[in-house]
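Hi support team,

I submitted a single chain yesterday and got back a structure, but I'm not sure I'm reading the token output correctly. Could someone confirm the output below corresponds to the sequence I sent? I've pasted both exactly as they appear in my results page.

Thanks,
R.
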Amino acid sequence: MKTETDIKSQLREWISSASKKGGKVAISDDTPIIEQRIITSLQVMDLILYIEQLTDGSVDVESLKPGAFRDVNTIYKNFFEASNDN
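Hi R., thanks for writing in. Yes, this is the structure output for that exact sequence:
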């Protein structure tokens, strides 16, 4: 089972490598990734697919709330925290 640190690290790595800003972008767990245009809103779909790979489950896009992809901390809370509590 992956730890919170492992998952957040993988998310930061994916976001950094997916960035269209050129080269890898250094981000922290509270960097607003869409607001700062690190990834585009179009790349959120790819991020959802990546989250599904990491969780080995599916994301119910119908139930997503605004801000669900604000930063790594928010992504972890929304998609991983409940599954790691088990």
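A quick pointer for reading it: The longest helix spans residues 4-18. Let us know if anything else looks off.

Best,
Support desk
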